[in-house]
Predict the structure.
Amino acid sequence: MPFTLCYNRSYAANAAKEVRSDMDGKERARPLIRKKVKGTELPAFLQTIRETGIGVDGLLFLCIGTDRSTGDALGPLVGTMLEEAGYPYVIGTLRQPLDASNMRERLLTEVVPHMAQRRVIAIDAGLGQASSVCWYQVSNQPMEPGKSLGKQLPAVGDYSIAGIVNVDEGQKYAILQSTSLYRVMSMAGEIAAAVKLIFPL
């Protein structure tokens, strides 16, 4: 579902706030990162996560979207690629999409139990300017899935990657439905390849 980046933790993150603190009782302060990058620059962004000392077992990939819309299938495609590659903590695949219909329930039952031990990378599709198509918005802050479509869903992720799959104009649902599958699959492959490079199994 199309994203809107935000800078507030979700209710799921707040539920786990105490257990996510450092051993000295203070939450780790992180300088704000929010920028647009090419696919070739995704590894550099992921490397900033790796440099905090987090490995594969310390990550949960939250891959948002649906298999019923080509433009909105970016997240589930990435999730499927990572799951098939053997990554242990992936939520949101083509087989079991994480979308507006089940997000609140699955955040509470599948994400919150991991938050004491793992950082969450949220991955979603987005719409933007024509010059931004096939680029990525990356941040070390949460994203708000579905906000551009008027959906009220919790902000998710300690880090976020949003792929701009098409132009934000006109009827957003129709634009997502008519988005090139080849483009979305290529972008999903770029994200998955970057993860495999920086966080090899």
The radius of gyration is 16 Å. The longest helix spans residues 181-198. The helical segments are 11-15, 42-50, 74-85, 103-111, 172-177, 181-198.
